[in-house]
């Protein structure tokens, strides 16, 4: 009813992404989504934003794509929220929801934080930490089968469109065992892949606060293919 893509990359921020912010929004609209959360690769990830920039400039350039998308989304009637995807260990990533670009701008130490410090920082600022595609098998991930430290996370991306069914199944079991929220994300890098994953809320989502609150309350079903 109120579908949101929760894991999305665009080519101005993520070196591995193909589509522009506008193309993603058009695709979300065409697939009947109410909104999207931009979760481009951040500093410790596959970003294409110049890491030699002074910190505040880095965040500004990174966030610029989101601001452009938000404006375009307003014109098209699609909600656009700000998130990030950040590495927390070798080959391991967390999705961070609910913090503003400003919050990161004021914390240049964030990128050097330990996994626990990153998680604490997000939670103390009212955000949600979701474990991105646990158990994913890729050449760049040294220990795919090791369970993530559950205490770092509020939720788990149990369904990742690009994970195998087996890996997704393990993620569901991991979330259940640790009583964590379950999410679904397309991890899309090109607009043609939009429409196969995400969260379908049973209540209208008008603000980012609505999005976060209703995830915490479990007022949604998962979109899985
Ligand atoms: Zn990527
Ligand atoms: Zn991703």
Walk me through this protein's architecture.
With 225 residues, the chain is an alpha/beta fold. The protein has one domain (2-224): Metal-dependent hydrolases (TIM Barrel, Alpha-Beta Barrel), CATH 3.20.20. It has six helices and nine strands; from the N terminus they run E-H-E-H-E-E-H-H-E-E-H-E-E-H-E. The protein has a nine-stranded mixed sheet with strand order 7-6-5-4-3-2-1-8-9. It is globular, with a radius of gyration of 16 Å. The model has no long low-confidence stretch (mean pLDDT 97). The protein binds zinc ion (2 copies). One zinc ion (ZN) binds next to loops.
Can you lay out the helices and strands and say which pair or pack?
Layout: E1 2-8, H1 21-30, E2 33-38, H2 55-76, E3 79-89, E4 92-97, H3 101-105, H4 115-124, E5 128-131, E6 155-160, H5 165-177, E7 181-185, E8 197-201, H6 208-216, E9 220-224
Helix pairs in contact: 1-2
The structure holds zinc ion (ZN) (2 copies).
List keywords for this structure.
225 residues; alpha/beta; TIM Barrel; 31% helix; binds zinc ion
């Amino acid at each position: 009813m109120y579908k949101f893509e929760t894991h999305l990359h665009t080519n101005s921020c993520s070196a591995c992404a193909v589509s522009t912010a506008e193309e993603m929004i058009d695709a979300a609209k065409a697939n009947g989504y109410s909104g999207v959360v931009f979760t481009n690769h951040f500093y410790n990830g596959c970003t294409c934003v110049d890491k030699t920039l002074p910190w505040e400039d880095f965040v500004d350039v990174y966030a610029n794509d989101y601001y452009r998308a938000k404006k375009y989304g307003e014109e098209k009637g699609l909600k656009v929220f700000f998130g990030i995807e950040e590495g927390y260990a070798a080959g391991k990533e967390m999705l961070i929801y609910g913090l503003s670009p400003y919050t990161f701008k004021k914390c240049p130490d964030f990128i050097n934080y330990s996994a626990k410090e990153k998680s604490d920082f997000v939670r103390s600022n009212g955000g949600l930490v979701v474990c991105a595609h646990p158990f994913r098998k890729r050449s760049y991930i040294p220990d795919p089968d090791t369970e993530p430290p559950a205490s770092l996370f509020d939720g788990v991306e149990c369904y990742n469109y690009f994970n195998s069914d087996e890996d997704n199944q393990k993620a569901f079991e991991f979330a259940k065992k640790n009583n964590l929220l379950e999410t679904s994300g397309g991890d899309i890098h090109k607009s043609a892949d939009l429409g196969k994953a995400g969260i379908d809320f049973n209540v209208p989502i008008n603000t980012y606060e609505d999005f976060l609150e209703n995830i915490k309350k479990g007022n949604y079903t998962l979109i899985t293919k």
